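Sequence design from tokenized structure. All designs in this work follow the same two-part layout: the structure record, then the generated sequence. An example of the structure record is given first.
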């Protein structure tokens, strides 16, 4: 159980900052065949979950998706509009939300440590996102799940690097400025 002692305005500002980070990281794009580009946006999703926790991290991702839904060019390569939610990358977008929740839950379920942050980024930021993204990409493109999963291996090296980078950045931030992380009541912190 965690309790927040942070004012609502501060939470909204933190959510907005991480949403902006996710948008900015979308400017780094490597197009691939199959309609799903390599971007740095998943790094932003990982950082949002690691720093903000499950609820606030997911809200930052949902803010980005809401901005995309109303047509703002906030996704990779300046994409936006409702069409992105029926395209090949739609499952990955949904996976970002669930991934941020999983990352936040793992990273903040107990004392924040480097191994917990790395595990969270790997499971939530890669495995969960792939579990949502690959089947939807297969469905939209009409390619069977097996070959789609195999082609998705092109994302894995970059995603592993992003998970490492997110872990290193989050651990460094936690050491330098622990107040940036989700406030928790002292009784809610468990020994790792």
């Amino acid at each position: 159980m965690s309790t927040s002692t942070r004012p609502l305005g501060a939470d909204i500002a933190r959510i907005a900052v991480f949403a902006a980070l996710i948008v900015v990281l979308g400017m780094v794009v490597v197009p691939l065949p199959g309609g799903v580009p390599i971007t740095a946006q998943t790094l932003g999703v990982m950082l949002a979950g690691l720093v903000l926790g499950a609820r606030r991290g997911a809200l930052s991702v949902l803010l980005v998706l809401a901005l995309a839904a109303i047509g703002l060019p906030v996704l990779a390569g300046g994409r936006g509009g409702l069409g992105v939610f029926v395209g090949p990358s739609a499952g990955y977008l949904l996976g970002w939300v669930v991934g941020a929740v999983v990352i936040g839950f793992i990273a903040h379920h107990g004392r924040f440590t480097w191994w917990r942050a790395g595990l969270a980024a790997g499971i939530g930021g890669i495995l969960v996102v792939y579990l949502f993204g690959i089947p939807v990409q297969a469905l939209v493109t009409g390619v069977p799940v097996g070959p789609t999963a195999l082609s998705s291996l092109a994302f894995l090296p970059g995603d592993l690097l992003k998970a490492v980078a997110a872990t290193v950045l989050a651990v460094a931030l936690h050491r330098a400025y622990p107040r940036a992380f989700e406030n928790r009541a002292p009784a809610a912190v468990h020994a790792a």
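The chain has one domain: 8-183. We note this feature because it recurs in several other targets discussed in the main text.
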